[in-house]
Design brief:
The protein is an alpha/beta fold. It has one domain: Metallo-dependent phosphatases (Purple Acid Phosphatase, chain A, domain 2, 4-Layer Sandwich). Helix content is 36%, strand content 22%. The protein has 10 helices and 10 strands. Helix 3 packs across helix 4. The protein is globular and about 50 Å long. The chain starts with 7 loop residues before the first strand and ends with a strand.
Length: 272
């Protein structure tokens, strides 16, 4: 197992923009702490061996649901990666949006959100907490168990997360941005789940189609680094970099390292 989890570091290639500081961005984790921990260890080893400074380590959201250690991953990213040369930036994904909306809601609304969330992978959190299906189906019991595990300090941090981060021309956001709305879409409050259709496309935590099919230049010439849409391989394109490689089902977690005018992929896989 240890050999299977050794990081695979790709070759350097030309990046679509210049980064003035070293950046490591990690795609959707979905409770795969078994992949996340060795990937973080590999990143910190690179930081030390290459004597990097003022490093930004950006996690792109979707820490929870589907995988077996959702809350363990969430606690790690909310606490921040501890290294003197590293700034840890935790961004929310749409699954953290489910979690936040569930924790903040009341009464019948909370029950409705729970059914929706359970359909989107929250059962993994219930199992992690040792809850039976019956107990997990009771929203107040589920909320109390989550709050007890995370603690109020972390929950407050979760609620205060920014929905994006920017380094030079690189914009880091979970889903992307609708090309019609550009950077204005980032002003959206991520507290509430979007409605279907256009409202979902306006949400930078949810957008897919209009963003993924757009091959032109984005607002302000930004390059979007995102997760949310799993692919068999990372997508390194002229206007976006997609690094969700479906860790919870593929067993492969992906990071992109940006250094000056270069970039490379770092991956950890549980498969030979």
């Amino acid at each position: 197992m240890a050999m299977a989890l050794a990081p695979k570091i790709g070759d350097w290639q030309s990046a679509p923009a210049t980064a003035s500081r070293p950046v490591f961005a990690i795609g959707d984790i979905h409770g795969r702490n078994d992949l996340f921990e060795p990937l973080i260890a590999a990143i910190l080893r690179i930081v030390d061996e290459e004597k990097l400074d003022k490093v930004a380590l950006v996690t792109l959201g979707d820490y929870v649901d589907r995988g077996p250690a959702s809350l363990a991953v969430l606690k790690t990213v909310l606490d921040g990666i501890k290294h003197p040369k590293v700034e840890s930036i935790c961004l929310p994904g749409n699954h953290e949006q489910f979690l936040r909306h569930f924790l903040e809601s009341k009464g019948a609304e909370r029950q409705d959100i729970l059914w929706n969330w359970l359909d989107n992978g929250a059962g993994a959190i219930a199992r992690e907490l040792g809850l039976t299906e019956a107990k997990a189906s009771d929203p107040d019991t589920f909320v109390a168990a989550i709050a007890s595990e995370l603690g109020m300090d972390r929950i407050e941090k979760l609620f205060k997360l920014n929905n994006h981060y920017r380094v030079d021309q690189y914009l880091f956001v979970h889903g992307g941005i609708h090309p019609q709305f550009g950077l204005a879409a980032l002003k959206r409050d991520w507290r509430r789940l979007p409605k279907s259709g256009l409202d979902e496309d306006r949400d930078p935590l949810w957008v897919r189609g209009p963003f993924l099919t757009y091959d032109g230049e984005h607002d302000d010439g930004i390059i979007v680094v995102h997760g949310h849409t799993p692919r068999s391989e990372a997508e390194l394109l002229g206007n976006r970099i997609g690094i969700d490689t479906g860790a919870y089902f593929s067993g492969r977690l992906t990071c992109v390292q940006l250094m000056g005018e270069r970039m490379r992929l770092i991956q950890v896989s549980d498969r030979a």
